[in-house]
Amino acid sequence: MASRQEGSLDAVLKEAVDLEHIPIDEVFENLRCSHEGLTSEQAQQRLQIFGPNKLEEKEESKFLKFLGFMWNPLSWVMEAAAIMAIALANGGGKPPDWQDFVGIITLLLINSTISFIEENNAGNAAAALMARLAPKAKVLRDGRWTEEEAAVLVPGDIISIKLGDIIPADARLLDGDPLKIDQSALTGESLPATKGLGDGVYSGSTVKQGEIEAVVIATGVHTFFGKAAHLVDSTNQVGHFQQVLTAIGNFCICSIAVGMFIEIIVMYPIQHRAYRPGIDNLLVLLIGGIPIAMPTVLSVTMAIGSHRLSQQGAITKRMTAIEEMAGMDVLCSDKTGTLTLNKLSVDKNLIEVFEKGVTQDQVILMAARASRIENQDAIDTAIVGMLGDPKEILNLAHNKSEIAQKVHTVIDKFAERGLRSLGVAYQDVPDGRKESPGSPWHFVALLPLFDPPRHDSAETIQRALNLGVNVKMITGDQLAIGKETGRRLGMGTNMYPSSALLGQNKDESIADLPVDDLIEKADGFAGVFPEHKYEIVKRLQARKHICGMTGDGVNDAPALKKADIGIAVADATDAARSASDIVLTEPGLSVIISAVLTSRAIFQRMKNYTIYAVSITIRIVLGFMLLALIWEFDFPPFMVLIIAILNDGTIMTISKDRVKPSPLPDSWKLAEIFTTGVVLGGYLAMMTVIFFWAAYKTNFFPRVFHVKSLEKTTQDDFKMLASAVYLQVSTISQALIFVTRSRSWSFVERPGFLLVFAFFVAQLIATLIAVYADWGFTSIKGIGWGWAGIVWLYNIVFYFPLDIIKFFIRYALSGKAWDLVIDQRIAFTRKKHFGKEERELKWAHAQRTLHGLQPPDAKLFPEKAAYNELSQMAEEAKRRAEIARLRELHTLKGHVESVVKLKGLDIGTIQQSYTV
Fold first, then answer.
1. What is the bridge-based pairing of β-strands 211-218 and 170-176?
2. Could you list the residue ranges that cross the membrane (predicted)?
3. Which of 471-481 are b and which e, b meaning 16 or more Cβ less than 10 Å from the residue's Cβ?
4. 56-65, 225-234, 283-292: which has the minimum mean pLDDT?
5. Which residues contact 776 (CB under 8 A, 6 or more apart)?
6. Which of 287, 544, 688, 842 sits CB 3.0–4.6 Å from 623 for a disulfide?
7. What is the pLDDT of residues 563-612, one digit of tens each?
């Protein structure tokens, strides 16, 4: 049967039939299908004929992929060093430097192998995660509608497409509502096209409006999109992360080039050094200065971080979105479903009762009975309840004239707070049948309806503000509803209707104010349309903000694409997911804030390593250049290879290190990285030079520690001196990672176990080599445990100033160095601003004491905390939120006191139990 079907579908397979334009009846005839769809067996057979509904992916050779890790500027320098070791080093009566050549190739292979394995694992994990996001299609199979992956669709399938879907295959439309299709990605049409019965739609188009059924006419490479795929410009844009890597790599290469140029100028024309020792010194700078592991460490760190984000409910579609999320300082969040539960509920405390003798609980019971349609019992039929529009129900009430004014007043009061009103009424039916005439209707109560905030939203918003992320509410609801939600969440009520800011008819009261300032300082926007979202993001980005945007609908796609970090919330449409950078699998704002913290931790690891890499380049180039030029000391290139291999093995664990996320939005600050690297590297280089001078030119160490002197110039002593220098450089270089990974004192912030373990293993190996090795091919000789102890003690003593230098650099670069000396800049403070922060803190404390609240948490106002660099915008938003909460408490207390006076209650008893 399969062969017979293949023959009958041969014309379709060879595209000999124009299924796009022939009448729809002929489409069914040529596809050998009907309106009832295909059976599973038929679909499986056609899948063998037409193939899966996806574009062909080129199978990349794993061997070529492995070699690709050796094809980058940093690897080119190492490869040049390898060629130099066997070509240029072949002189001075000595054979080629095969041991250095083998060592360099080994180092390249180690880095490439680790990169290949980790990226392959990360790729497999990413493929598994993306499979969860694979486009789905609603298809009619075996007479039942089921949801299948779009990849298994075949010509002849009947599918259902609706608003927000990405059309999974080329199809012809059947019965249903006309569709509005966005084909801009395929045809360039800027306006949506209207499609109806018999019209063709293309794979990859987005449904903007409507719902309809369709018959699939082409899949995979046979679709319009598949045929045009080879025409699509697939040029890879160089991302920001790659630009940063290139900049750091270029800095290191230029530093090495400058060092080598100076060595060549001094060694040969001035010092008249022999050819081969000069080449060895150049190899030391080439091999030791290149951070060959940098691409591997950073890519592995991001891959592992992406996996951790997925475990928290945030799937990363674009890996570099991690660094952008770490720098995000504004988050435009949807209200419905993200900040709120998207479930209308009744606020029991605000129920307004109009019938005497009826309690709020009884009102809720009546409303519940009125909501039941099925399985009503005798009580339900004896007392008929009604629930609905208050104005309509009021018209039926027998006492309408008496309560109408009060009802309308309450409705208006609810509306001012953004609450919807629901009326409840009842009537007695003596016969017990709903069809029987009953007594007059009694208007019982008004229920306030509201979409309540999520239980964790208020706390999460406070966390976001403390992290320097300003959360702005984006809602299509009315302004009153947005303000009420903002009040309940404690995020402030400084909100505007977006049409008043961005529409043609702006609000007169704010027409003269700069719109960009209002958008920047607003707590949220109401009545938002999709084009407003795009404009809000655009204006925030123009103010140099890193902007995140959440969305779930097809109309959110432009704003998600425009934002620095587009976030598709849980249950988002395919179009929103396609346009986003991160897809959430869990609802709520807390997932996003957790992802921000994780992203900052990932970014912190990458930043720590780049500072370390630059520092090591400077210390190797400057340190060994000075030794070679001042004392004509020739350090063996092979030992630099040993240092590099041990360093790489240790530094790979940085991807899983325990770090403290930055308390503020973070980003690549190349000036800070280069400055810190140059200063720390210069300090370490000078420590090596001083150690060499003390060991080689003085009798200090033998006199104090009673060890063999190294100040003689015999060849053996040079070998032992090389071992001592090797151990000193190896230990202090690797220990530097503990300084760059910490924001405070390096011995206070506990590192990850793997990093500590790798460090001690590597340094144990380095110490054993320095103590016992007697390698003639590389000119080193064991120095014994005495000298090894001296080296360790020397490095420990000179390790501690590294933290102080780090602090000095940070504060010097931040422009706040003088704040350490003068906490309050009294001389530069205007009279009206002097002590403003203290006055605000005292006012807030007084208000909280007045209302019986706990003292404010120290984290709420972190001006005096360790990190007092919170962005001004987030700080202002935090204060507005706090003031809004206190004002609400002040109003609430006034209401309580009014009720107490009317009821004649004891105010003392009320105050004792008045807690929030």
1. antiparallel
2. 66-89, 101-117, 244-270, 282-304, 609-631, 674-696, 752-773, 785-802
3. bbbbbbbebbb
4. 225-234
5. none
6. 688
7. 888 888 877 766 677 778 888 888 777 888 888 888 888 888 888 888 99
**pTM reported for the whole predicted model:** 0.69
- Annotation marks residue 507 as catalytic: no
Q: What are 633's two structure tokens? A: 């000391």
Query: 525: exposed, middle or buried (C-beta count within 10 Å: 0-12, 13-18, 19+)?
Result: buried
The strand order across the sheet containing 547-551 reads 314-316, 582-584, 565-568, 547-551, 330-334, 470-474, 524-526, 495-497
Task: List C-alpha distances in Å: 431 to 372, 378, 425.
Answer: 20, 11, 19
Q: Tell me which DSSP letter residue 166 carries.
A: B
What domains are there in the chain, each with its CATH number?
Answer: 2-57+137-231 (2.70.150.10), 241-302+601-811 (1.20.1110.10), 314-342+454-596 (3.40.50.1000), 345-450 (3.40.1110.10), 846-912 (no CATH)
Q: Please, are residues 447 and 422 in contact by the beta-carbon 8 Å criterion?
A: yes
Beta strands in 60-184 (DSSP E): 136-141, 144-149, 158-162, 170-176, 179-182
Q: Judging by DSSP bridges, how do beta strands 774-775 and 780-781 pair with one another?
A: antiparallel
Task: Please tell me which residue in 182, 334, 523, 657 is annotated as part of the active site.
Answer: 334
DSSP calls for 750-779:
PPPHHHHHHHHHHHHHHHHHHHH-EEGGGT
- CB burial class (10 A; 0-12, 13-18, 19+) of residue 405? exposed
C-alpha 779/C-alpha 636 separation (Å) is 7
* C-alpha to C-alpha distance for 110 and 116, rounded to whole angstroms: 10
Burial of 664 (0-12, 13-18, 19+ CB in 10 A): middle
pLDDT per position as a tens digit, 133-165 = 567 788 988 888 888 888 888 888 999 888 878
- Whether residue 221 contacts residue 56, with contact meaning beta carbons closer than 8 Å, is answered with yes
